Structures are given as structure tokens and as C-alpha cells.
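Subject: Sanity check before I submit

Could someone independently write out the C-alpha cells for this chain? I want to compare against mine line by line before I put it in a report. The sequence has 356 residues.
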Amino acid sequence: MIRLQDIAEMAGVSRTTVSNVLHGNTKKVSQATVDRIKKILEENEYRPNTGPLMSAGKGSRIIGFVTGYDYTHGYPATMDSFIGELLAAVQNQAEKKGYYVMVIGGGSEERVLEIASQWNVDGLVLIGYSEGRYRRLRRRLNKKAVLVDTYTLKQEYDYQNVGIDDYGGGFQMGSYLLEMGYPEALFIAEETRVLPNEEVHKLRSDKAFAGLCNEKRWQGFKAAMESRGGFCSIRRFIVVPQDAQARKRRYEHMLPQILEAGGLGFGSDYNAIEMINFLHDRGIQVPKQVSVVGFDDCVYAEYVRPRLTTVHQDVTAKGIMAFERLRRMIEGETLPEMYVFDPVRLTIRDSVQRRS
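---
Independent answer below. Compare away.
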């Protein structure tokens, strides 16, 4: 295994200089030297020994990855492809920088508090936390944190959040379905019970249990549907249960409405693919009889048949961005911008057909 001294000799600098670069103490090191050392570290896949750092009181080098819910789609949250891809991105980037990731189920805030304190994590990446839950956690746990896909009811963020343009994604979805001849298309989202009651009551929509991300996607979808003078009723925003069997029963009940609308937009690829299979099992052809659009562009979107038209977001880039912002905060940097987000784009495949 390559040693710190080996890296120093390869870079033509002292061990101290290499150590300073590893731990972010680069004020007295030229940028050219920093870049040279980082390149050698990456090429040799160097992983620092964190034991001395912990004993010296320089942190645990552990990052907590916290999901705001224990279950999604009726299954453990870490089985979800979106969560899995995000976690993989955070973990891979963390290991490159000498950090390690601990997964913490965040359905119970007490559990997060207990584990984060016991292991003295340096910081947290939180996915699926509501604003209210995060504020309660922050009052009791003094740790650096970056949130992913958390939505504020105010105009500005006062906590670090990494997200996407959900409204824009919903607008692109709605515009495409409208263009393809589906002015009565439905928007379907799965309920997510991560909002405290006080936040639910502040929402204007009665679809609060679909979550604020789907609220924003619906608003974009609705605006697109009304862009040519039509009206898109709130009744076209349909929230289905988390439980898989309950969802199927709801789909059965909705089948006449689905066939009449002819076009469906979904808050996630999982539910879009589930619907394609549901329709296929009943002899209903996608896209000949019903067109379907998803959201996320997960790894399975290209493998389902027909291949899924969906709103693409770069989940890997989101995970890397979340970790890097957290690392910079842990290492003492002040980040002026509180909310950063990636754009999204519609990826057109085979699950939508123009309605004659």
C-alpha cells in the first residue's frame, strides 16, 4: 500500500505539505502544488489512515447518510433505485476524499440523534427531510448538514439544500403530453408522509401527502396544460397509496378514467413502470392506448418495454454535489449560496404516441 512518504517523494514536496493538502489546509500551498498532489493521490487511489485523525480530535471522517423515511413504494427505502444511486454517488465521492459513509434510517429522529452522536459523525447528508423535521433535528444535534430535495414554504433557504428544477420538469412533461394530443392527461404521484401536520396545513393544495416535490411538479404540469388556454383541474392530480396492493386497487378503480385521459404523467419512474406493467397485464397497450411519462430517468427506464419517456435528472451529480458541499463546510469553508440545483430535461423514448 502506498504511503504518505511515497506521495511526498513523487510530488517533490514534504510529508507535511501532502498532509496539509489531504486535510484542506492549503492556504500556504500554491494551487499548482495542490493540483499536482491531488492528481498523484487520485492516480494511486490513496486512502488516508483516519485513526490518528480521530485520536487527535480532528473528526471521525464519518458522514451520515440519512433517509427521511423508512419505506418508499411499500418497500425499505434503500431498495429504491433513486436512493441507491444517490447513496452510491455520495459513498464513492466520500471514499475518494478519505471519508466513510454510515447509512442511518431516518424515519425516527431519535435514532438519527442517537447514532450520529454515538459515532460522532462529522456531518450529515439528509434526503427526504421536510423543513420542519430538519429544524427540530438541528436544535438537538450540532452537526454540519446538507439536505437533498428539501423544500421550504418561504421564499428563501437558510439551510444548505441541493435539488432540481421540479417545476420545470413538470412543465416539460405537461407540454409534451399536450403537444402529443393529451389535453386531459392526469398527473399521478405516490403519497409520502414526511410532512408534519403543521406543514400540511400551510399548503394550499389538498394533495399535501404527495410531498412538496410532487406539488411543484404538478404546478409545472398544470401550467403547461393551461398554456394554450385550457383548464387543468386539481382533480387531475391523483395521489395513490404507498402500499403496493392498495395502489393496484386504486388503479383498478381509476381504469375508465385512465383510458379516457389517454395520457399519464408520474412523479417517479417507479410508479410509471408499475403502471405500464399494470396495463400490460390487462391487455392494454402502451403507448397505443395509453401514453406514459415518468420522472427521474432511473437505471430501469431504458430496460422496460416500451422504453420509458421521462424527465431526466442527474442523480449521481446531485450526490457528488451534496457530499462536496458538506465536505467544504466540515473543513471550515463558508458557502454563500444556500440552495443549488441542477436543471432537468425531457428524455423522449417509446412510451408516448401521438393521439390521432
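---
OP: Matches mine. For the report I'm noting this point. Confidence is low (pLDDT under 50) at residues 194-206.
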